[in-house]
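Incident log, structure service

09:12 report received: a user says their structure output differs between two submissions of the same chain.
09:20 pulled the input from the user's history:
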Amino acid sequence: MIRKLLVFISSTSDLRDERHALKDLIRKFGGVYEPYLYEDEPARSDSPEARCREMVERSDIFIGILGAKYGTAYPPPGESGSIVEWEFDTARSRADLGLMAMMIKKVPPDEVEPPQQHFLQRVRDFRGLWCKEYASSSELSDDVLNSLVQWSGEITQASLEERHGSKQRAQRILKPAAIISSLLVVALFALSYAQVWTLPPAILLGACILECILLVTFILIQSI
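09:34 re-ran on a clean worker, output below:
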């Protein structure tokens, strides 16, 4: 069974419509993606921080939705910040995360809370981060869908390139091995036939089998 790609959706509580629009969109591709929202979690014995960290670290894709509100303060001990910024930093620390997209809602600048202004600037300044603004839930869904399609295409292309590279590496190894073994088998039979070097039939048979294996493997790789 193919594992679904886990999509972690992060946002402040006031962006409920956007969260659920993305959730509905992702569920349309139920065979591929699985959306995760912490608010859907039932009561658990572990702490919210532990569960959020676990799910961020398990996720393949992280989508952050940012608006005018900074959100609820929930920092690790000794630090200050919001839940959303903490989730952002946790995801950003992962080198193996497939896709990290930050969607920023278009709002008048004077409506943005001061701590959120600083956070938004951090997001925009972070190099290599897919970041885009949106004006409505439908525009948000369209942009995220486009990013998922593009990311999936890049993953497929990378997989094909890796497969092609593996094929070329195998060919570089097997081709000379098949040629050398063929020459060796011919030489062994010639020496045995000329009675220059009499070899046991088992050795000649083993050499023939090895040559057949190499040739068949090389032909199969060529046909992939």
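09:41 both user submissions now match this output. Likely a transient worker issue. Closing.
09:42 reviewer note: Helices lie at 16-27, 48-58, 83-92, 114-125, 137-193, 201-223. The chain has two domains: 5-135, 162-223.
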